[in-house]
Amino acid sequence: MRALAPTNHLTSLRRWRWQAGSSLIEVLVSLLLISFGMLAMGAMQGYALAASKNSGHRGVAAALVAEAADVLRANPPGLSAGGYDLTGYLSDAVAITASQVQAAKCTYPTCTSTTLAGYDLARLKDRVRSELPNGGLQLVRPTVDGAQSTTEADLWIVWLEPKTIAYKASSGTGLNAAAEKNFDGCPAEAKALTQLPRCLYMRVVL
Question: Per-domain residue ranges for the chain?
């Protein structure tokens, strides 16, 4: 038995060295997997924050579109005459200054339905731009029997989200084009932008 002791000791030493090397490799692999997991969690957290902002923006847009609908219903002659018609959303074309809002202001008894509509639009555009990122407003009266409606209007609140959840317009072919055709209920002018915006739509009936 004593003669076998050195052999057993050598075998145990070799086993210990093999186990030590194996443990080091396992630790390195574990660290690598953990690193990938942390990167994925960081990306998901960033997307979750962006999605949370989008939910907040949609809530603001819902309040703004309801306010705009009330404004339209308060001035039926202005809507019928086309005083609220507003098309061609572009993120750099909807900005309006406080001085422009003040210049559009009208007061009784000189205020007409047309001038009131211009003042209402100025205030709404200012509110939308200040409360939503690159926010814009678009209003189109649908065509009924060959003429524009005098009692209905299609109203959109449009804004751009951060790049983390931005959508790019496709080349116009394939599945992406089909999905983007009715993306978020946006009007045609908004869907023509390079970065597809977010939109909130409402049909207003007087």
Answer: 55-205
